[in-house]
Amino acid sequence: MNTRRVADSRHFVNIFSRLGINIRFAVPVNLLLPWCYACGIVTLQDRDTARTGGAMKFLFLIPWLLFICGAGLAHWRVLSPLSGFILVLLSIPAGLAVVVAALWFWIRGTPISYGVVVCLLAILPGALIVFAGRDAFRVPRINDVSTDLEHPPQFTAIAALPENEGRDLSYPESFVPVVRDAYPDLSPGTWPKDRMATDRLFDAAVTVAEGLSGWTVIRADPESKEIEAVVASSLFRFRDYVSIRISGTGESIRVDIRSKSRDGKSDLGVNARRIRTFLAALSAEITM
């Protein structure tokens, strides 16, 4: 039975139900529809209303298509990460538009089949986006974080990448007070020199960087004790940059790390979490 016939049948049964006649299980109503149209019991307007209400229940697919296509095409690198992300964000207004359309048809007397379920499914992609980005309201609108704000680690190999031609990768001075206020717990990793050799710490840092998910080490200089890596996000494949510097200061060895998002003006707190993750993994690697 096709969708149109189902919609006609349900509307036909509803009409007789209002007359106190229950024919749902008495007769095959689809066989009676042509006769009812001819006799005027069910009008063509009633039929079109039923068909419209039945077809409109598939509106919830629009925001889901935007959500899935945006994430999928970005993940498989058919679209740029930013383009895929924008496509996913469009599922929010698309879902709200479906809800408005459902209300409009309901006011006009053409309720959408399973209207409440359709509306809930339509706004679900937007709800998932809001839930995933809930930290955006609690973190500063910055995209570059460092444990050393006076002399942040620099990007050398990363700056030479073709994608960064003409791009300024210096640390923004306006971020310094923001990072201090937002992430007071963020500090360099330090180890006593009498317990840890600089070379061993460098080797451990390289091992940790190569083992973290999404990280690709593109420079590991044992002379300057500097490491650079490109980090790709798991879903949209956003490319972030990391620079690690190991230096000896007095009686201790200091590990500074800088993490920068290439795209967007807000990192949603990702860079600070990445620094904490690396330092925690490095500490665990050393104590093994």
Based on the model shown, name its key terms:
single chain; 288 residues; alpha+beta; Alpha-D-Glucose-1,6-Bisphosphate, Chain A, domain 4; 2 domains; 6-stranded antiparallel beta sheet; elongated; disordered N terminus
Walk me through the structure.
With 288 residues, the chain is α+β, with helices and mostly antiparallel strands. Helix content is 48%, strand content 15%. The protein is built from ten helices and six strands, in the order H-H-H-H-H-H-H-E-H-E-H-E-E-E-E-H. It has helices spanning 3-18, 29-39, 44-55, 61-75, 81-89, 91-107, 115-132, 175-182, 198-211, 270-287, and strands at residues 144-146, 189-192, 215-221, 226-232, 239-249, 252-261. Strand 4 (226-232) and strand 5 (239-249) form a beta hairpin. The relative contact order is 0.11. The model is unreliable at 1-9 and 18-48 (pLDDT under 50).
